[in-house]
């Protein structure tokens, strides 16, 4: 079992070429993955194999996809105020499936708090209401994108108040109350919003974590938060030996920023 998880941020639009636009990169990378003879499998399937609930053959010669933050750019086609029309990530997946006949699926790790998203829309996007959650049920129903948790409010530095007193980095989430506010509260909200579907995966904001989350809260409070696994940002494939509570992912732009870089990355995994 050696499965690379390729991660993209739909908010990353600072130009219209591969290195400056994750929409351009995703569209090209999907076809590159297909040309290399690799399949795209749901991230939940990778976790099933890791935990022994599915055979390893399920993820043989496969990659998985994840998207972080969960803005409208994951789902909608949007006319960017600076860089013009952008095909949403969901549309890019549909285009790929229609063109190749191959399965396409990704997991969107979303910031759950409506209040936090409303603020982040102003501080991190264009302030046009592009961080709503009205598309999440449609995404789940179509089966193209799985909606999972990227925490309650990302503990983002631009928020006036986070779920706890200390803001700016997820490394400071090191007590039961803070962890519960960020992780279980997000799972509870998603479970109610997307019922009967249940949230089971988590991605650390910026990949930031600490010993309390990895060795205490996540493994010892599983009956409360109900998660099956969590993902970080270590650049490595998911293997049988990977830490269930800090699974690795490759981040577009950070771990490769050109088509040849992705090919080298995938070749190195084998």
UniProtKB/TrEMBL annotation:
Q: Where is this protein found?
A: Secreted
Q: Which domain of life is it from?
A: Bacteria
Q: Which InterPro entries match?
A: Glyco_hydro/deAcase_b/a-brl, NODB_dom, Polysacch_Deacetylase
Per the record, the GO terms for biological process are: carbohydrate metabolic process
Which Gene Ontology molecular function entries are recorded, alphabetically? Answer: hydrolase activity, acting on carbon-nitrogen (but not peptide) bonds
Cellular component GO terms held in the UniProt record: extracellular region
Q: Where is the NodB homology domain?
A: 58-215
Q: Which Pfam families match?
A: Polysacc_deac_1
Q: Spell out the protein name for this chain.
A: Peptidoglycan/xylan/chitin deacetylase (PgdA/CDA1 family)
């Amino acid at each position: 079992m050696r499965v690379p998880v390729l991660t993209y941020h739909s908010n990353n639009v600072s130009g219209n070429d591969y290195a400056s636009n994750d929409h351009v990169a995703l569209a090209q990378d999907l076809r590159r993955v297909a040309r290399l003879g690799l399949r795209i499998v749901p991230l939940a399937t990778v976790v099933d194999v890791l935990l022994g609930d599915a055979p390893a053959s399920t993820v043989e010669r496969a990659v998985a996809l994840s998207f972080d933050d969960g803005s409208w750019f994951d789902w909608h086609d949007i006319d960017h105020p600076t860089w013009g029309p952008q095909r949403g990530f969901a549309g890019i997946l549909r285009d790929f499936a229609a063109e190749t006949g191959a399965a396409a699926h990704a997991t969107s790790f979303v910031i759950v708090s409506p209040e936090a998203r409303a603020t982040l829309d102003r501080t991190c996007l264009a302030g046009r209401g592009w961080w709503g959650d009205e598309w999440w049920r449609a995404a789940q129903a179509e089966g193209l994108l799985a909606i999972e948790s990227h925490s309650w409010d990302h503990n983002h530095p631009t928020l006036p108040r986070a779920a706890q007193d200390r803001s700016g980095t997820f490394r400071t989430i090191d007590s039961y109350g803070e962890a519960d506010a960020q992780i279980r509260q997000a799972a509870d909200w998603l479970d109610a919003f997307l019922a009967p579907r249940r949230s089971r995966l988590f991605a650390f904001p910026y990949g930031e974590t600490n010993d309390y989350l990895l060795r205490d809260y996540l493994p010892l409070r599983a009956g409360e938060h109900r998660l099956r696994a969590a993902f970080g940002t270590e650049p490595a494939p998911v293997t049988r030996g990977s830490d269930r509570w800090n699974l690795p992912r490759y981040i577009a732009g950070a771990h490769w920023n050109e088509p040849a870089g992705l090919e080298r990355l995938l070749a190195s995994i084998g």
